[in-house]
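Aldo/keto reductase
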Amino acid sequence: MEYSKFNSIDKKVSRFIVGTMSIVDKEDLKEDFERLDTAVEMGINTLDTAMGYGRGTTEIALGKYFKSRGNRDQIFLISKACHPSPWRTRVNTFDLEADLNDALVKMNTDYIDLYMLHRDDVTKPVGPIIDTLYKYYKAGKILGYGVSNWTVERIEEANNYAKANNMPALIVSSPNYSLAQQYAEPWAPGCITISGPENKKSQDWYIANQMPVLAYSSMARGLFSGRITREQWLNRPEEIDPVCMKAYCGDTNFTRLERAEQLAKEKGASIPQIALAFILCGEMNVFPIIGAANKEELTSSIGSLLVKLTKEEVEWLDLKRDNR
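Predicted structure tokens:
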């Protein structure tokens, strides 16, 4: 496993981050806890969760996990606030404070290593949000803060405000990023992707600034699982996950998939490993969030660290050149 650090937070962060969206609080959490144990044993010490996961119960389940294992301080814990409800965007001081204080109680912890805004509302000023994050940073309740699904323009606005007021800036961002470009919104409005040629400006910004990118949906909802083909898309689309169909199934992405398959055969790797290697071997500072269901999938994901791609291969996969 490779490790890094996020700015001033004096705690190592594994290159891979385990997403916990599939974990919901229930009477029997044995399998979920064993899956987390396996990730930790394999060197992944970073967990990503959110107030909005599991209808608000994923944080509760993680609190039970930390209590049962006594390993909270060994885990780099990421959580997120201000997910929209059906009634409002919830990007405000009131909801941020409520979500954070609830998260601390639910997860049986005095602090969260990295706390993030899950969504943005560009009609709201950034000042009160940064002020609130800084308040809890000073109190030691959060060790650093960042954003998910924010545009680079809003990140710059927030960081300019922080600098002008002598506060720490946002230290990470979590957009969608993968080999696949998005043809349509996969979820509710407000999700931000930096994939594809249409987002080159954002990619260039992340390259120039080297802000860590916590990339979600790096497998494009299963497109790079190795189980989906162009023939299936054309003739049996009902077999493909509806979200994948809506957001990622299209001619250019299937060309990317076919090139990934070709490269996988040449390098003795799997298609998912090539897809992960694409984002790991690029010029951005990327930490993939993975939702591995078992030890085999975790092993495969970690194995992508051994798959090295040249700049020419990365560009060829992304259809930026015809040969490599």
